[in-house]
Design brief:
This protein is α/β, with parallel strands linked by helices. The protein folds into two domains: about 230 residues, Spore Coat Polysaccharide Biosynthesis Protein SpsA, Chain A; about 90 residues, UDP N-Acetylglucosamine Acyltransferase, domain 1 (3 Solenoid), CATH 2.160.10. The chain contains nine helices and 30 strands. It has a seven-stranded mixed beta sheet with strand order 5-4-1-6-11-8-12, with helices on both faces. Strands 14-17-20-23-26-29 form a six-stranded parallel beta sheet. Belongs to the transferase hexapeptide repeat family. Pfam families: GMPPB_C (PF25087), NTP_transferase (PF00483).
């Protein structure tokens, strides 16, 4: 069995934050999203590969070398050109060969052990499922109906979900099912693996489910990204920074090197401040601020601010600010 982490999406739902950076390499606490997934694969003793695209290859290259992971790079440079998840799986198979595969979406953060997941794998397709507890929320995902641990129905993004149990982007697929991808792609949706599962069920293939509790985050929106930060950021990690004696840090926070916390500022809790940021006479909480951003005389709450921005004299709540933006309110 090989492990394939899918990290080739263009993450349009998080634009402009992800227009120039891949979603799996967004920080959650002092680590990237993909680091949490990679850590879970280490106990498996399997070869791990990451599927991405030409546009994001340079972002992943250093990370892959540091983590001894091989990249599988599809030759696409834009959302319009992308192969889609199933197309990217087919491309990876063409490079790696037929085998059983553990396939994990690279923007998923989940509580369960992949080792425990694979202990339930019996050579038939196995998917990880989670109860979101809300029918309206379930409409966004692949909805699963079970009899025991067997999947008897699967609806991708249904208007009227039959349950609140959803597929989470973790799949164990045997070699013979991987070998059916070409046949599926003649007619099937290239992007969402959920349609492939639907197709398998229609062909009479037995599919099984591994149900888990605790937490699962699909980092597809600012809210889910910030909630993941609140769940996974357990303790503060503060590098070499400058801080005014009149400023206060409320843990847990991550503050990267070169940051300056000046004047009467309050930073935290559940806040990430990137390298060389300047926070002056401002309150920043439940937020993510990327490198080289300046915030002066402002209040920032539950917001994500991209790199090289300048925010002055503002109150920002539940906002998403793209890179290089300059926003201020006049005196």
């Amino acid at each position: 069995m090989k492990v394939l982490i899918m990290a080739g999406g263009y993450a349009t739902r998080l634009w402009p934050i992800t227009k120039g950076k891949p979603k799996p390499l967004l920080p959650v606490g002092n680590r990237y999203i993909i680091d949490y997934i990679l850590e879970k694969t280490k106990e498996l003793g399997l070869e791990v590969y990451v599927s991405t695209n030409k546009f994001f290859e340079r972002h992943f290259k250093k990370w892959a070398e540091e983590n001894n992971v091989e990249l599988i790079v599809e030759e696409t440079l834009s959302e319009e050109e992308k192969l889609g998840t199933i197309g990217a799986i087919r491309y990876a198979i063409s490079k790696l060969g037929l085998d059983d595969y553990l396939i994990v979406a690279g923007d998923n953060l989940f509580s369960f052990s992949l080792d425990e997941f694979l202990k339930r794998y019996n050579g038939k397709p196995l998917i990880a499922v989670y109860d979101v507890g809300d029918f309206e929320l379930a409409k966004r995902y692949g909805v699963v109906v079970l009899e025991g641990d067997r999947v008897v129905d699967f609806q991708e993004k249904p208007l009227q979900p039959k349950s609140t149990l959803i597929s989470t982007g973790v799949y164990a697929l045997p070699k013979e099912i991987i070998g059916m991808v070409d046949e599926y792609l003649k007619d099937g949706n290239r992007d969402s693996p959920g349609y492939f599962i639907e197709w398998l069920l229609r062909k009479g293939v037995e599919v099984y489910a591994y149900k888990f509790d605790d937490y699962w985050y699909d980092i597809g929106s600012a809210d889910s990204y910030l909630e993941a930060m609140k769940t996974l950021l357990k303790e503060s990690q503060i590098e070499e920074i400058q801080i005014s004696p009149y400023s206060k840090i409320i843990p847990p926070v991550v503050i990267k090197r070169g940051a300056k916390i000046l004047g009467r500022s309050i930073v935290g809790p559940y806040t990430y401040i990137g390298e060389n940021c300047i926070i002056e006479n401002s309150d920043v909480s439940d937020s993510i601020v990327f490198d080289n951003t300046i915030i002066r005389s402002s209040t920032i709450w539950r917001s994500i601010i991209d790199e090289k921005c300048e925010i002055r004299n503002l109150e920002l709540k539940k906002s998403l600010v793209g890179g290089h933006a300059k926003i201020q309110r006049g005196d």
